[in-house]
Here is the input.
Amino acid sequence: QKEVEQNSGPLSVPEGAIASLNCTYSDRGSQSFFWYRQYSGKSPELIMSIYSNGDKEDGRFTAQLNKASQYVSLLIRDSQPSDSATYLCAVNTGGFKTIFGAGTRLFVKA
Amino acid sequence: SAVISQKPSRDICQRGTSLTIQCQVDSQVTMMFWYRQQPGQSLTLIATANQGSEATYESGFVIDKFPISRPNLTFSTLTVSNMSPEDSSIYLCSVEAGEETQYFGPGTRLLVL
Here is the structure.
C-alpha cells in the first residue's frame, strides 16, 4: 500500500515566523511531488511542485525534497494569518496516479 | 492552469436517489479525475476518466455505483447512484495539466438524508 504521511497538526505559528510542514512517502520510485493549500470549505489549490532533490523557492514558499530519505517539506516564510489552511502533500507514484496525504492544519496567529 | 467548473455546487438528496455531477474545463485535457473528500479527511480517488475509453476505478469503487461519462476533452460527469447517507461528501473533479500536475474544480457538496 503506497502511503503519504503528514502530521495532522494543528501547527500554530505566530505571524512573521517560518512555518515548516513535513511529509514522508513510501514509494521510493516516486518522481513528482506537490503541495496543495486547502482553505476550509474550498477545493485544493496547487502552490508548489518539485521534481528533483534540493530546494525550490517561489516567493515566500520553499519546497524541499530528499528522495533518499523519502521526505518532502514546505517552508512558509513570514507567515501571515491568510496562510492559515490545511496543506496537503501529494506524491505521483507513476502514470497519472497521485496519492494525497491527510493534510496538516496550519494556524498563523496575528 | 485550467479553469474548472462543477455543477451543482451543493445538493441535498434523499436516500435511494441518484445525482449526476458535471465537470467542465476551459481547455482540452486528456485526463480527468474524480475524487471524494469526506469531512476532515484527505482526497480519495474514485476513478480516472480518459476521453474515448472506459473510466478506470480505484479499489472500493465500482461502475454501477459511480458511473462516469467522458464524451469529449472538456467535459465529464460522475453519477452517484442509489445514494445512502454514507455517500455524503464533497466530490471533486480535477484535470491533469502537464508534468503530472492536477488542478481541481470547486467541488460539489452532497448531503444524503
Remarks:
- Chain A touches chain B through 19 residues (CB under 8 Å).
- The longest strand of chain A covers residues 85-94.
